[in-house]
Structure formats: C-alpha cells, structure tokens
Amino acid sequence: MNMKIIFNKYAYVVLLVLGLGTIIGCQPNDSVEGNGLSDANVDASFTITPVEGAVNTYLLESQTTNVIASKWDIGEGSYVGKMTEKIYLPDAGTYTITHTSIGRGGESNSLSKELIVAESDPVAGNLLKGSKFESVDDFNEWTILNISASGAAWSYIPGYINISGGGWSQQGIYQAVEVEANKNYKVDMKVWGDGSSNTWFEVYVSKTVPVQNNDYSGDIRMALNTWAGCGTSAFTGKLSAVGCSGSGNIVNFSEAGTVYIVIKCGGENIGSSGINVDNVEFRGSL
C-alpha cells in the first residue's frame, strides 16, 4: 500500500477532529440566563374582591401574564390553587393573604396583602374564644384540665399552644360553649409535630362536665393515635385531615345547652417538640 496515501488520510482525520473541536468550543454556554426559558421577574400581583351576595366570601384573582401556576396562603399554610380562588373567612379579624406566582423555569415571586373582615358570619362564626392564641389572654380563655400529677403539660407560645412531656401522663384543656338544638356544628384545628410514640391526642365535644384531677372520656370525635397509625412521624395540617381516629367532627345535639370542647393529650413520649395547636374552631356547619 502507498504509505503517502495512508499518511494523507490520517492527516485528514486529525484535521477534521481539530476542526470539530474548534466549532464546538465556539458554541454558547449551556446557561439559561437570558435565553427566555426562565422569568425571574414573574409578577405576583393580585386583587381581592368581596363576592356580592355572599357573606365573608372573597375572590382572589392573580394577574396571568407569564404565570403558569399559583400558590395561596390565607393564614393556614401555602397550597396550590387556581389563578382565581374563592375563599370564605367566617371569623372577623385581619388576615394576611399571600400569593406566589410561578413562572417559566420554575422562578417564583410572592406578594402579601392584608384583608380586614369586619364581622363574623352570624351562622358559621367560631363560637370559641381565644382560638388563635395571639396573646396569653387568648390562652387564658381555656381552662387547664389536670389529670396526671405531673408530666404532660400545656403551655402558651406566641401564636399557638403546645403540649409536651410523656411518662404516660396526660393533661387537657377545655372551654364551654352554648349550642342550639338539632343544629350541626363542626370542630377542627391545625396541629403539627415531629412525631410521637405511644401517644394519644383526643378531642371531645360533650355535655359531660370536666372534673379536675380526673380523666375525661366518652365519644372521641377526632384523634391522633400512634396505635392507629398516625402521629408517629412528622405531621402538619388540619386534625380532620391528619388524624386517624374518632367518630367524626360534625356534631349535633337534640337539646340546646352547654357543651364542652375538650382537648386531651398524653402518652409515653409526645415527641421532641411536643404537639402544637392553633386555629381551634367550633362553628355552625354550613
């Protein structure tokens, strides 16, 4: 074979590879900056409009330009919603409404506005006092129900309350409310914790009067119960959603009168941070 021809073919291949390397080396970086695939300035603005003819109901509307998804937070944690959301706020108060717009490339921005609700819904307003635990005075609206001599104990933390402890001890809190006959009422609350072992967290709505230094029992309406499979690992949300025991959070009484909302918790180990509670609700069910 002609060696000159072989050399020329080899040289051609080398030059071709070097040329491709030069072309590839001149290509733009893979960075998405400035290429239109992301939008760091996505607009999170929104409007709040009362819904005509509906009590304490509001329409939240996001601007939609370059927005591919919306998240909303009306004070109980962020959730994925629509760009137009209808919300119902039955209780008077000042609410911080936060909207998060998600744009191209997953970029997001948030904007918050305050909404003042002047009056509670007379039909479905919360009957409990101090339900949001915004001050120690709110906590004092509740009565501590001592059951065990020591161990588990409720305490006030600005914005919520906490029960911690263990050693198979338990303690409760309660509040009395007046109910009408044959009317449905709903009880619920926000709860969160890091997880417990051999622990119960129970909610009662009953005409039975709590007695100090005595256990409280009866129809458990809602509960976290580690034996039933909930509360063993980190949890957060409405008790109606994260709980796994109880006869249901809608109650009805054949006679008008006083009932007691009792929250009782105890066990071997309630968890490193205990169980936290906020936004306790007892209201007429719509």
From TrEMBL:
InterPro entries: PKD_dom_sf (IPR035986). This is PKD domain-containing protein. PROSITE patterns: PROKAR_LIPOPROTEIN. It comes from the Bacteria.
